[in-house]
Design a protein that fits this description.
Layout: H1 5-16, E1 22-23, E2 27-28, H2 31-35, E3 38-43, E4 47-53, E5 56-64, E6 67-77, E7 83-90, E8 109-116, E9 124-131, E10 140-142, E11 149-155, E12 165-170, H3 171-179, E13 185-194, E14 201-212
Parallel strand pairs: 1-6, 9-11
Antiparallel strand pairs: 2-14, 3-6, 4-5, 5-14, 6-13, 7-12, 7-14, 8-9, 8-13, 10-11
Length: about 220
Amino acid sequence: MRINMTGKLMVAWGLLIGAQNTWAADIAFSAQEMAAWETRSFEGETRYTVVRDNGAEVLEANARGQASAKYLEREVDLSETPYLHWCWKVDARYAGLDERTQAGDDYPARLYVARKTGLLPWQVQSVNYVWSSNQAVGARWPNAFTDRAMLLALQGEQSPVGEWRAEVRDVSADYQALFGEDVSEIDGVALMSDGDNTGGDATAWYYGVGFSDSPTPPNCPG
């Protein structure tokens, strides 16, 4: 079982985020680019590979009781590109776990955004968009390890598996709703599929991750 997985990721960001260029134009990450992001391991390593789905290259994340994240530390100017968008798909949910507890802190798919709130490594605040196994769409709750990470279920217990789902989020609005703070930029983005706390097995696929000035949902493969 990992110990304070989200806290570790936040500390890692705090140590690695430095003086970076700020993006001011639309940003789009290919599957190859996401596969090349830094890896942060917590319990073994989720297997991330580039595969094709309906003719499109997508990032496949295969967790067999492991937990590792792909992450990128960069500033994103939310006044220029406020909307985070992506497509994702999972092949299974995790049955019989309570995601609000440390023992149940596993998700077949999740996408993070993070920002620094101070000079110390642990002074990082993150919004975690998750594919929940047992919560309803729209549910929100603090991470079981740290209240500096808030989780928001964009897909939930009734969401179909094996189907692409398109997402678009106003990141500033989500920080305001979840933390009550006005945020004009973030310092990192990450994705992860994990099953280490429960020994869960799941595969997820990610496509079309990026930031833009448009709330139009992305076109998913197929």
